[in-house]
Amino acid sequence: MNSPDESQMTQNLSGFQEALQSKKAVIVSKTTCTFCIRARTILESATTDVAVFETDQCQEGKQILSKAQEETGHKTLPIIYLNGKFIGGCDTLVKLEKDGDMYTRLGVARPADAWNGSTSKRKTPYEASFLWFPHTVNIYPVRCIAFLVSCTAAVVCGFYEEEWAAWVSFALAMDFIVRFIGGAFFSPIGAVSLLLTAGFKEDLRGGAPKQFATFVGICFTVTATMCFLNGEKIAGLVILCGLIGAAMLEAVFDFCAGCYVFGWLIKFGLVRKSVNQVFIDSKPVLENAIELVDDFSTKLKDPEKFSLVELNQPKTAADVKVKRFKNDDHVRRSFSPLRYIEISDFMMPLGIAGLAAAWRSAERQRNTHRNGYGPEDLWQIIAYMAGAIGGFMFLAILVKTCVYPRKIYKEITHPIKSNFVAAFPMLLCILAFLYDPQDSDKHERRARKALFWIGAVLLKLLLLYKVSWLVGNRGDDELVTPALLMPLGGCLVASLVAPLLDVAGETHYLEVGWFFFGFSALLSLLMFGGTFLQA
């Protein structure tokens, strides 16, 4: 450690110039920056001949920072010098430590517990983000999430007097909670953001500060929801306006207010300084891996570039027929809705339609007991949403059948994916339940029955096919999965919807419902038996 006199000497611009000449290591730093904290920890563990200039505490901190940035062209902190020569920031220092060059430049022996690849020992324990939140995040999806959050909150603020505004605020709070636990992948807003920003090059940031910012978002949205539900709508409006302001700062200017507060928590000792160590130490490795993947992906786009010629081998016809490997990142970057949409994706509108059906059933009870907070027509809004998404996907599947017929054929003949074909006729049956025309309108009643019969007949045929397949492939036990119960469940749904199609005084569809139920109950003995034996 530096002596008091020496430390005092280094608190101004002249002391900075002197330190560059006399010290082995010089760091221009900031007390709230986790990268600066990590760089200081690495250097001080290697040598005591280190001068640290905290720009937010030095007498001439701004002048020191300006001079260092002007001389080096390095705009971020920390700015690190070894033996009077600028080397870069924390990422560069981590690489030098890993390679051992840092100890060579400092003229000290490499300690036994230093970084040595896979067998690394650290004096400071690794700490990742809380729960399953990733310790490294890409800033572009984060900023897109902030924009979508601000748009959602703005809708609530614009209609804050409406009863449904409280439920949108509640949904936003649940989205924050899901992202706090597992990151953007499991969140609806996060998943959309990952898709929209798939083409952008990664810009990695620490996960811990972003998780804290997400926690702050939870506090905002939960408090606003409670205010709305308790009639304090103005208070909820003010809170969400604050959330919009913070989210727009992140989305437009890349300024994270939660991360800024997180830095001060580190400075005051309320958060451990090593909280971002996993991200900082792994960032150079991750960036190098991203560059390798990008280079590999570029070569795969042109098979002519991906050949044995690079290995000084003669070129063959097999080189241009190489199987193109695709991971999740490749799929997102080459995103084509028409190419990658699948019949099994009808599970999404099916789930939404199921929610609308459940809400409609609950609405009937709510009409008797008027104590709920939900809007009376919410189930209709959800039903329209399910119908719109389902209609769009149906048109997309039709186009894909014409453009990529082989992909559709592979899906409907796949032993497991083919079970989810039942999602589309199940959706039609539930929409027939939700579509409740006036009794006097014969055309609308016919349209409702048409939806039911199309879905019910398809489910019956699919169930017969699956039972026949199950009987004829008794030896393929690995292909017997609970997904086989999808067509059976669809027929049971049809049996419940059928009686609701009868108008007053009719029982024709009640008999149809019993037919579907009896047929499904009989075949369920075989289906349940096969799947349970496999389990």
Protein topology:
Layout lengths: L3 H6 L3 H10 L2 E5 L4 H13 L3 E5 L6 H12 L6 E4 L2 E4 L1 H10 L1 H6 L29 E3 H20 L6 H18 L5 H9 L7 E3 H23 L3 H21 L3 H11 L9 H25 L26 H6 L3 H4 L6 H22 L9 H26 L1 H9 L9 H12 L7 H31 L12 H13 L10 H27 L1
Parallel strand pairs: 1-2
Antiparallel strand pairs: 1-3, 3-4, 5-6
Helix pairs in contact: 3-5, 5-13, 7-8, 7-9, 7-11, 8-10, 10-11, 10-12, 16-17, 16-19, 17-18, 17-19, 19-20, 19-21, 20-21, 21-22
The separation of the N and C termini measures: 64 Å
Neighbour order of strands in the largest sheet: 2-1-3-4
Secondary structure tally: strands: 6
Question: Which geometry do the CA atoms define?
Answer: elongated
- Reading the helices and strands in chain order gives HHEHEHEEHHEHHHEHHHHHHHHHHHHH
Strand content: under 5%
Low-confidence stretches: 1-9, 116-127, 306-312, 317-325, 368-373
Mean pLDDT across all residues, rounded? Answer: 78
User: How much helical structure, as a percent, in the residues?
Assistant: 55-70%
